[in-house]
């Protein structure tokens, strides 16, 4: 995968379900050769018979997609393209790509989707309950959004399996306790060692808190229900999540070690979460297992809390983390593992000691986890990518793209104009396209024109060389002649 740095300042684009994004738009750390990387543009819900047609009230006979080993989040290309998922389970061509729906209540719907019929009316009432999971795009970045909207059960939306009669509402889940698991044992690069947190593992992810300004969200459904209040709009500055219930959170790594199962979780903790949970701690940022006294944020004090501090207002912008985890040679004050975290392009880590949760959320062996999984806690976040590789890897910065170098030969010249002209209007991403990735537009021509004559520096991420004015005049005289010739047989629109 080729990572690129782009400053995203364009207006918000329309939100659509997205497939085929360029992995790494805006990513700061280069790809070391990940064993597996979820890149934010895979969203697939496998419910073999569609929403509710044979749902049996009061049972779990019609399992939500992803339970029982079927795909929940998936690279679309890894599925049999000729398979109709509504006619039966689709074959997965590469089991390593599969994320299983480990939670119990996702109904397969997306945040912001039209809600189902009035709870309590005769069946069938199709999804959706409030909240859910889907993939969107903004500024060329594909991302997965997960929203747990509180406790819709108190408002008449049923948890799966809780319907008692054929006249009660029939949802396939209330969209709370949403969680997914990726089985590391299925990856071709897996070493066979089930204790990856002991021997050493590197993970990396880029995430932010979800807001209505960056994508669809449903209102918050307070667990008190309609007797005391109404659903309220999602907070304008988002709502994060703690580390809870023995090491559960937004991003997780679990394993089976010599001393038993273990897991560590990482979550974006904001002021709204601190206030809602009435925590003793007041800092905001990336929180993870505490250094002593148990792993969870709620049990932490200012002295035992582990956090990479990020100002509250910045948590709705993309935050990128590169993380090393390894067992300590000797426990320190109850801590068993060391965590080194590189943040937002820094090559100097912050180092912490942590206590693992003494369980494996997903079963024997190592797993990656994504989700918001604990009871009536609520939150929403976006995932641009989530990757891992066994061993302790030191990050390197990704190279800055040379804007306008559309044939990727480290210089911006007339050949790049030809690439732009021949692809203008097509829905593809050109090499080094930094303005409107995903479609070739007149704005991409402007980027080429503004950078004409530049060449890539041998230094990683260094600024490009800018020609002298005389060189510019000669270059554009040549280009003008080329355009006169081309326009006689090809009409284009320039800005």
Give a verbal description of the structure.
The chain has 495 residues and is mainly beta. The protein folds into two domains: 36-390, Jelly Rolls (Sandwich), CATH 2.60.120; 416-487, no CATH class. 10% of the residues lie in helices and 22% in strands. The chain is built from five helices and 15 strands. It has helices at 196-199, 271-277, 414-423, 442-450, 469-487, and strands spanning 36-38, 99-101, 132-138, 141-148, 178-183, 201-209, 251-257, 260-269, 285-288, 306-309, 319-332, 335-343, 350-354, 367-372, 379-390. The radius of gyration is 25 Å and the shape is globular. The two termini are 32 Å apart.
Comma- or semicolon-separated keywords:
2 domains; disordered N terminus; globular; 5 helices; mainly beta; seven-stranded antiparallel β-sheet; disordered C terminus; Jelly Rolls; 15 strands
Layout of secondary structure:
Blueprint: E1 36-38, E2 99-101, E3 132-138, E4 141-148, E5 178-183, H1 196-199, E6 201-209, E7 251-257, E8 260-269, H2 271-277, E9 285-288, E10 306-309, E11 319-332, E12 335-343, E13 350-354, E14 367-372, E15 379-390, H3 414-423, H4 442-450, H5 469-487
Antiparallel strand pairs: 1-15, 2-5, 3-4, 4-15, 5-14, 6-11, 6-15, 7-8, 7-14, 8-9, 9-10, 11-12, 12-13
User: Helical element count?
Assistant: 5
Question: Which strand-content bin applies to the residues?
Answer: 15-25%
Radius of gyration: 25 Å
The secondary-structure element order is EEEEEHEEEHEEEEEEEHHH
* Helix residue percentage: under 10%
Main beta sheet, described? 8 strands, antiparallel
List the uncertain runs: 1-23, 48-54, 92-96, 165-169, 458-476, 486-495
Mean pLDDT: 78
CATH class of the largest domain: Mainly Beta
| CA distance, first residue to last residue | 32 Å
Shape assignment: globular
Remind me, CATH topology of the largest domain? Answer: Jelly Rolls
CATH architecture of the largest domain: Sandwich
Q: How many separate domains?
A: 2
Derived from helix and strand composition plus strand pairing, the structural class reads mainly beta
Q: Give the beta-strand count.
A: 15
């Amino acid at each position: 995968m080729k990572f690129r740095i782009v400053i995203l300042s364009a207006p918000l684009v329309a939100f659509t379900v997205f497939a085929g994004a360029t992995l790494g738009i805006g990513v700061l750390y280069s790809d070391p050769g990940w064993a597996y990387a979820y890149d934010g543009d895979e969203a697939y819900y496998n419910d073999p018979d569609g929403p509710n047609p044979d749902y049996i009230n009061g049972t779990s006979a019609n399992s939500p997609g992803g339970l029982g080993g079927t795909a929940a989040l998936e690279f679309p290309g890894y599925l049999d393209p000729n398979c109709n998922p509504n006619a039966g389970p689709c074959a997965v061509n590469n089991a390593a790509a599969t994320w299983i729906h480990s939670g119990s209540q996702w109904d397969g719907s997306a945040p912001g989707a039209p809600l189902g019929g009035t709870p309590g009316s005769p069946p069938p009432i199709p999804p959706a309950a409030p909240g859910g999971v889907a993939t969107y795009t903004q500024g060329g970045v594909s991302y997965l959004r997960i929203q747990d909207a509180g406790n819709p059960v108190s408002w008449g939306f049923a948890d799966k399996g809780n319907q008692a009669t054929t006249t009660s509402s029939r949802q396939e889940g209330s969209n709370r306790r949403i969680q997914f698991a990726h089985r590391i044992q299925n990856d071709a690069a897996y070493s066979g060692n089930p204790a990856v947190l002991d021997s050493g593992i590197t993970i990396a992810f880029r995430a932010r808190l979800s807001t209505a300004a960056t994508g669809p969200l449903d209102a918050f459904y307070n667990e008190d229900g309609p007797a005391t209040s109404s659903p309220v709009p999602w907070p304008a500055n988002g709502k994060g999540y703690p580390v809870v219930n023995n090491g559960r959170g937004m991003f997780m790594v679990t394993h089976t070690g010599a001393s038993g199962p273990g897991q560590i979780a990482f979550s974006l903790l904001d002021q709204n979460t601190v206030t809602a949970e009435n925590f003793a701690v007041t800092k905001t940022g990336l929180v993870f297992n505490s250094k002593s006294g148990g792993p969870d944020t709620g049990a932490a004090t200012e002295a035992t809390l582990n956090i990479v501090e990020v100002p509250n207002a910045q948590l709705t912008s993309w935050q990128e983390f590169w993380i090393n985890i390894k067992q300590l040679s000797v426990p320190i004050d109850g801590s068993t593992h060391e965590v080194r975290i590189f943040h937002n392009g820094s090559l100097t880590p912050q180092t912490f000691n942590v206590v693992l949760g003494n369980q494996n959320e997903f079963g024997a062996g190592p797993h990656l986890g994504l989700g918001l999984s604990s009871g009536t806690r609520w939150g929403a976040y976006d995932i641009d990518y989530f990757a891992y590789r066994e061993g302790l890897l030191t990050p390197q910065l990704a190279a800055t793209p040379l804007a306008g170098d559309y044939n990727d030969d480290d210089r911006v010249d007339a050949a790049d104009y030809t690439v732009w002209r021949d692809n203008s209007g097509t829905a593809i991403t050109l090499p080094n396209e930094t303005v409107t990735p995903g479609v070739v537009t007149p704005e991409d021509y402007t980027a080429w024109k503004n950078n004409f004559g530049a060449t890539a520096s041998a230094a990683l991420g260094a600024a490009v060389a800018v020609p002298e004015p005389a060189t510019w005049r000669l270059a554009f005289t040549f280009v003008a002649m080329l355009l006169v010739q081309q326009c006689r047989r090809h009409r284009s629109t320039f800005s």
